[in-house]
């Protein structure tokens, strides 16, 4: 019989094992459980959400399905049944009944209860009141909290995670975008629908983040113009870059034409260029002062409008 693994070797194996495989293996071994909690758990993506169905129970309440996705495996808790599915497959890989009084126990196990170190590249909390158990600290790189209030998850995020590499949210007046965690994020992704009220539009222009991406939205030319005017009046920092996604490039051309008309007295036209394989539509530059200017142009594939602040001496 070959000799057993030493603790350093076993620790190395567990730490580099696929997260879901490790959780299943250690759950079946009392000896592994004793050492597993102290070994860092590495997760590529952790997604938690509540899915509301059209069915109602005897009391008239909507039935909620809780879904947790760890990397490529989704865990569904619905009507006291725990089901596991691999992403991209229609087949469930495991299923078991869960006693009603043990529901929280099973959820907490997969949300890291009792673990001292959990590293998550991307944490997503969508339409969910479910959070990791108290005391669990996740060290993350990215936070996606569309339709949720990110402040409820903050107690479970290790302060060493900040500044975040990416912060994603739905832009509305119910979210505090003046929070230092939002302002310090290296890359900000905002989703929205419809036109924005004046106060919300102004808050977009005030964001201190250098890189911001706005998901598809029916952006009107006056909204882009108002952001540009705010940047000119307040001398926006060089290096700031906003990207606005559009469904088709014809909308970008229309925006560029109207921006050009709005700033006709001070703007400079640019011809279509191709930089490092990226096809840029013709654009305009608008001076801020002697040190900086605003560069507005379109890019194909994916179709997006770019508004960025560059040095006045930079050739574009």
Automatic annotation (TrEMBL):
<dbReference type="Pfam" id="PF12078">
    <property type="entry name" value="DUF3557"/>
</dbReference>
<dbReference type="InterPro" id="IPR021942">
    <property type="entry name" value="DUF3557"/>
</dbReference>
<protein>
    <submittedName>
        <fullName>Uncharacterized protein</fullName>
    </submittedName>
</protein>
């Amino acid at each position: 019989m070959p000799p057993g693994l030493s603790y350093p070797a076993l620790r190395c194996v567990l730490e580099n094992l696929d997260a879901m495989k490790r959780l299943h293996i250690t759950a079946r071994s009392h000896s592994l459980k004793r050492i597993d909690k102290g070994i860092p758990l590495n997760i590529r993506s952790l997604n938690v959400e509540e899915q509301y169905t059209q069915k109602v129970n005897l009391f008239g309440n909507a039935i909620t399905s809780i879904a947790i996705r760890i990397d490529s495996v989704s865990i569904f808790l619905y009507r006291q049944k725990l089901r596991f599915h691999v992403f991209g497959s229609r087949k469930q890989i495991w299923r078991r009944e869960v006693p009603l009084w043990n529901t929280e126990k099973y959820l907490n196990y997969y949300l890291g209860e009792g673990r001292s170190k959990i590293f998550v590249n991307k944490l997503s909390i969508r339409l969910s009141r479910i959070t990791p158990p108290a005391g669990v600290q996740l060290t993350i790189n990215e936070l996606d909290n569309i339709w949720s209030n990110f402040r409820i998850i903050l107690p479970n995020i290790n302060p060493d995670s900040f500044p975040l590499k990416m912060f994603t949210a739905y832009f509305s007046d119910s979210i505090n975008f003046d929070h230092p965690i939002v302002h310090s994020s290296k890359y900000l992704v905002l989703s929205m629908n419809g036109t924005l009220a004046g106060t919300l539009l102004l808050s977009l222009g005030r964001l201190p983040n250098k890189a911001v991406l706005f998901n598809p939205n029916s952006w009107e030319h006056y909204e882009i113009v108002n952001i540009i005017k705010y940047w000119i009046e307040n001398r926006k920092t060089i290096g700031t870059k906003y990207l606005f996604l559009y469904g088709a490039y014809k909308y970008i051309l229309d925006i560029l034409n109207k921006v050009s008309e709005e700033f006709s007295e001070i703007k400079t036209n640019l011809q279509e260029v191709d930089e490092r394989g990226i096809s840029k539509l013709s654009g305009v530059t608008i001076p801020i002062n002697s040190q900086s200017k605003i560069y507005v142009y379109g890019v194909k594939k994916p179709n997006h409008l770019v508004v960025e602040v560059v040095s006045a001496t930079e050739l574009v």
